[in-house]
Amino acid sequence: MRLKRFPRQSRTSRAATSPRRKPVAVAVTGGIGAGKSEALASFARHGAAVISSDEIVHELLRSDPEVQAAVRERWGDTVLGPDGAVERDRVANVVFTDRRELEWLEGLLHPRVVATYLRWREKLAELPEPPVVCVTEVPLLYEVGGEERFDAVVVVTASPEVRISRRIRPMQDREQRLISDEDKVARADFAFVNEGSLAELDAFVADVVGRLSSEAR
What we know:
Elements: E1 2-4, H1 9-17, E2 24-30, H2 36-45, E3 49-52, H3 53-63, H4 65-75, H5 88-95, H6 99-125, E4 133-137, E5 152-157, H7 160-166, H8 172-176, H9 181-187, E6 190-193, H10 198-216
Parallel strand pairs: 2-4, 2-5, 3-4, 5-6
Antiparallel strand pairs: 1-6
Helix pairs in contact: 2-10, 3-4, 3-6
């Protein structure tokens, strides 16, 4: 089952008619456990350049000196592994049991995540043959007002029962902070109910890439 809307003409047209053609910038978002990462992988299979906000976060925790220093100062040894490095699983144990700590971490990381994927998009645009479509997975896209940075938004949804069955870590508190799937779908350019096979998801993504590529020509 899938729902689709045509992309915002004004944004896509601007991307296609700028002096130097930039890839059509797409965001993939949706609820926890809906299958955003699978959708991102499908976009990659269909020729889009892709990047994940979660992976950017992991890299910041691994290698950004300012982030590491701030995390150590706030939480001390509780988030350090045996080698003294910040470990994301230990950070998760702190923030997913305390909303204030989660909000602090998001405030630290969010501007850096945005700056990273915007730089990535600019580098793609400088390539001799830029990809037609580039896709960023952004779990909290609407919650932080980030949709204005993209030409089109894809929302991936699934029923609460299906999403719960896919979760690795309970996130009830974080879930309560998200806007509803209904609101996301209403605001999206494309939406997919991800409760079937990978082949169905792949067909949906192929359709989206085809439509956006046609708009960009």
